[in-house]
Amino acid sequence: MNTKDFLQHVQDAYAALTDLSIIMLDLQHQPVTKVSNITKLAELILFSPDKPFPPSCFPNGDNIQWQRPMVVQTGYWGVKAIVAPVLVEQKVEYFIWAGAFIEEETKPIIKERCSRFPNSQIWLQVIEQTKEQTISMVEKKLNDIEKMAMVCGEYIRNDRQKQHYKQYFHLLDAAVDSARRFSLHMNDFLHMFQKLDTDIDFSLYIKRRNREWVVANAVGEKAEQLWNKHVKTAFPPLSNSLFHSRSAVCFENVALDPRFAFFAVHGVKPSAVVAYPVLHGSEIDGWIVIGSQTKCSLSKEVVQIGTILVKYWQLYSEYELVHIKMDRHFMRLSMLIEISRAMNVVKDTDEILRMMTDFVAELAYGDFVFTVLADHKRKVKVHCGTISEQQVTEYYEDVCQRYFFTEEKLLETIPKLCETKFGTVMEISFSVHEHMHGVMAVHMKHLEAAKEAEVYVTALIGIGTMIMKQNNYHGPKQQLNMDMLSERLTSREMDVLNLLVQGCSNREIADRLFISIHTVKNHITNIFQKIGVNDRSQLIALVYQLNNRKYINEEHH
């Protein structure tokens, strides 16, 4: 239903309710609707050839202060009507005329006056048939017409807002479609701003770098000269008074404003500028600035659409960030699973300790990882990263003093952030059993990564200590090495093992060795039993560790 039809339906309903003839007019007194519930008295007034409608007492469009309905003269002495303004966002846009009626105890006087009208006989007959209205009846009609004006004004406001939203959604849909088709970059996004209005000459993205603000992206014929230029804090959005604004800031007639000299120095002379803050969480991460060199101000609609686009960019950026974080978490979880399987195969405690340290170092939270494990016989220390032997020794002595010479501290399993001369270090103590305790120290470059580090490091320590505890419970076993592996397996089993490690399937192994798949399966079963593993992943992890250990031993020798 369009607006005109809706207004007509509302008018018809209120005409029946008030028993008045009603019509709506615009500010130029042109009809917007057809007359509803035309009475004989209203017909004489509305269609009189002697006095064209509306009468001179009717309010004009400049009377914007008029806010409430009122009773007015119709131009025919004693015959009255109600006129009500229709407000749309506090501004009069239409009028409602509702009439005509005569108030109580005025009929004799009106009849006397009517005798002087042309066609007086018709007037006298109509006045005689018209029912007089009491004060309370007129007040009720005033209230009803005021409600009608409010309903119409609210509908018009909502309908216009709906049209604006449709326009916004079309633009937003275009932005979403662009992001769907390719990875949306800031330059692509700035081009969208220039499509908001043909008078927008440039769009910039000003970003903080260290302690300075720099034009990180620029779109526009002259604006490209601004790329990578430093912006001084005299520029209003960067000033203290506006910096904490969370909404768009508009500037009009800025051509001669010295605060915008940054643009003029580089050949850009805007007349109107709008700056949108780009938020990262609750902090302002940058400003998107659009400007026109021809218009002194940009329309409210353009500013509103720009606000929606900026919010979309923030959502898109947050989604990209979350997507990257999810990928990293999945990768690290996969690494954690694989290292857990490998530790379960490698039964040597020292080797497990080294694998734990190497894994945490690969997570790259800081410059080094240091681990020490002690029992009543010895202390084993392992480190990885850019920490020298002298620093290792100093840190080792400090850790031993704080953890292994004080029984109470070994009971603290909650990670602690300690300030050292190397910077911030996360220390996590753990116990394998009552006589074997350890500490892992992870250097932290950025404190915001501490929570993530705590999750992965504590999970790894939990798995590692569980495996070490199982190994100690079953007693010491002979350490497996590559030479022992070749002694335990036949030459054909070694051939099968080499192809397994390369990732070949049973069919590929059978084809390469010219044997049946059934024979391949038998060889694989024998290999599992001889080495003590349950599946291919454990086998591959074991071989990888043995080859790595052999390489390290050859390096040392």
From TrEMBL:
Domain HTH luxR-type: 482-547
Keywords: DNA-binding, Transcription, Transcription regulation
Transmembrane intervals: none
SUPFAM superfamilies: C-terminal effector domain of the bipartite response regulators, GAF domain-like
PROSITE patterns from the UniProt entry: HTH_LUXR_1, HTH_LUXR_2
GO molecular function, one term: DNA binding
Record bears the keyword Transcription: yes
Record bears the keyword DNA-binding: yes
Domain of life of the source: Bacteria
One GO-annotated biological process of the protein: regulation of DNA-templated transcription
Name of the protein in question: LuxR family transcriptional regulator
InterPro entries named in the record: Sig_transdc_resp-reg_C-effctor, Tscrpt_reg_LuxR_C, WH-like_DNA-bd_sf
